[in-house]
Amino acid sequence: MKLPHHLTIKKGHLHINGHDCVDLAEKYGTPLYITSEDRICEQFRNYQNALSSRYPKNQVLFAAKANGNLAVLRALAQLGAGADIFSSGELCLALDAGMPADKLLFNGSSKTPDDLQLAVKSDVIVSVDSLDELYQLDAVAKAAGKTVKIAFRVNPALKIPTHPKIATGLASSKFGIPHKEIPTAYKKALTCKYVKPIGLHCHIGSQILDVELFAQAAEVMVRIAKELTTIGVNLEFIDLGGGLGIPYHHDTDFAPTPEDYAAKIVPIFKEGIEACGITPELWVEPGRSLVADSTVLLTRINSTKSAHKQFANVDAGFNLLIRPAMYDAYHEVIVANKADKSPTTTYTVTGPICESGDILAIDRQLPKIAAGDLIAVLDAGAYGFAMSSQYNSRPRCPEVIIKGSLVGLMRRGETIEDLTINMTRPPWQQ
Ligand code: LLP
Fold this sequence. Notes:
8-stranded parallel beta barrel; binds ligand LLP; alpha/beta; 430 residues; globular; 21 strands
């Protein structure tokens, strides 16, 4: 199987940036999320270089929902990242990590009054998703005696051939304002006293492997930018969103790189803004393509069973990685302590959760395995731990991060006591 360069096999063991997964499992236990900070930083620089070499006025915002660990956010903040934030929690994490407020775009189609208040108080930019939200935000800013900078989220109504649960730019999607109504929305915003429209935003979906779709979205966006310029909106940025996919099937998928992505979209962006006579910043919001391949989820086999199929029952399930169960997503798996052995047997890797759908990998060719062996689930850095739960009352596992020769815990594992930490006795049970 093809591996990214930070994953190597030495003496039969899978290594991440030179660190032996088998040793890490001994030291920290399993299940265990292991992340390479070096890889995340490398990929962030790939984005920066790809954009800057073509259009220096750019800003990469990390989609914080993909991986909300502060250590990850901090590493990216130090390289100059901003963030696409989707909740008050993500807003606070991004600020805590050292990202400046003017590099944070507060997205979301259903913000609460508290979200809007925090956005105004924190001076972040808000991507407004409806006219109702626009007027609410104007009132909140008025009450705070402030002006809030905004963009509108455009629904470009494209056909997006990705999993329907992660396509967002379809006409029927819950996100954004239909593209034809966008000029009217800006006209209305221009009449609001406490709102200043400075940006234009879209995000068409996730795990997109064809850059042509980003080109189509960019074309819609510059066309709208032209209309907005004529009605007097001074666009300081145009945000084309995230969505670049990764090759989850290592040997057969082709995924464009940040370089391929930039080579496709920047010329359309530049030509479009030149036609408007403006020079806004170009913003992008990658999540998955920045962090997914930085991380493996290491899980130990509790037992094997030969029944209808050969099952490998492991200690991580959809409580820790829900993508296979939720999106039928494919993640490569490697036997981390037998990584040099030839595959001989077809296994289905199943988790410990009381659900038939708790399957991490179906019908994979692996070497003969037994209880105690370690399975590494690859490409688990995006929407992995971030979507974990305590379902079946299972404490979440620890996360470690690697930087060069150093390894450090970035989240301790939860304990059984943590399961009840927020539970309270109702008065009649005292
Ligand atoms: N910007 C906005 C406004 C978004 O909603 C998202 C993702 C992104 C950027 C980043 O997209 P990315 O570059 O990561 O594709 N849980 C699903 C993915 C949900 C994506 C939600 N929005 C999964 O595991 O595939």
